[in-house]
Every structure is written in structure tokens, then in C-alpha cells.
Amino acid sequence: MNEAKQSPRTDEEPFAFTRDELWSGAGWTWVAFTALLLVITGAAMLWSTLAEPATPGWGPRAGLLLVVQFWVLVIGGSVSFAVIIVALPLAMLVARGMRRIRSVRVHLTVFAALGASVGVLVLGVGASGNVDPAGFFWNPILLPATLSITTTSVAFGWLRASRRARRELRTDEPRSPLGLERAFDGARSPY
Question: How far apart are CA 115 and CA 99, in angstroms?
């Protein structure tokens, strides 16, 4: 069957979604998180390579960078996958609650806040098992890095998963199911 004919979106619920779109958002969130995690840890390793002398017995720094990136991918990818699976029901509830709201900016803001909240919760769990929880949680690098990665990746996951819904909202598109005259009755444009 044609996927376009199975769209759950209506005039009243322009951001209704399917289960496949929910899983797509989770997948894109995981890909974005893992990629950003690798970029940030790689940049930190390169910075430390330039800032510190070589450590005897560890070999060339490039080799160490590859080993660290491998373990960041294995551990960070696994933990983030588990977090996404656990947080997916919450994301579904948020998306269901927002299915009637047309504003893309509002959706992005809410999903970015969801990402930041998940980042804070994960840091809280990590801090609870640390000798110095306050020092771990309020680390001047860890907190902003985590929040920027989680905020960006969840917002990106929503953007990728909502492409079809956002395309259907375009009133300048002749194929838009809403049509120009009905799309924004009494509402502002989401763009």
C-alpha cells in the first residue's frame, strides 16, 4: 500500500505520527548522539595531544585516539541505545501531547528540552555512583558537553522523523493535503 495514503495526519492533528516515525526518530537520535559523542571526544583527545607531552609507554597518540574512539563507540553507543529505549515511551507521550500543535519551533523547543532533561537524568545516575557526586555532575566540561549533545541529538531526531509531516504542512506545495486556504485558519505559519 502507498505510505502517503496511510498518513495519520489530519487538519486537527497535523503532527500525528506512526509507530515507524517514532522508531525513525529514535534511530536518528541515536545516530546523532553517537556521532556527536565521537566528534567531541575526538576533539578533546586532539586538544590534549597538542596541550600535553607524549606519555611514555603508550605509543603514538594517534593510536591511543583510535583505541579511545573505539571504546567511546562501544560503551557510549550501548549506553545511549539503552537510554533511548527506556526514554522512548516518554518521547511518545510528548509527541502525542503535541500532535495538534502546528508550530515547528514549539516542537523543536519541546524536544530539545526533552533531550536536555534526559541528559541531566543520565548525569544524575552517573553522579550517584561517583565518590564526589557534586564534582562529577557539575564538571565544567561534562555538563555542557552532555547537555549540548543530548539537546541537539533529540531535536535532530525529531526533525528527521517529522519530515513527512512538515512537508504536508507546506501550503506553497501544490500537493499539500491541507491546501492553502485551510492550512492556517487563524494560526501563524510554522516556518
Answer: 18
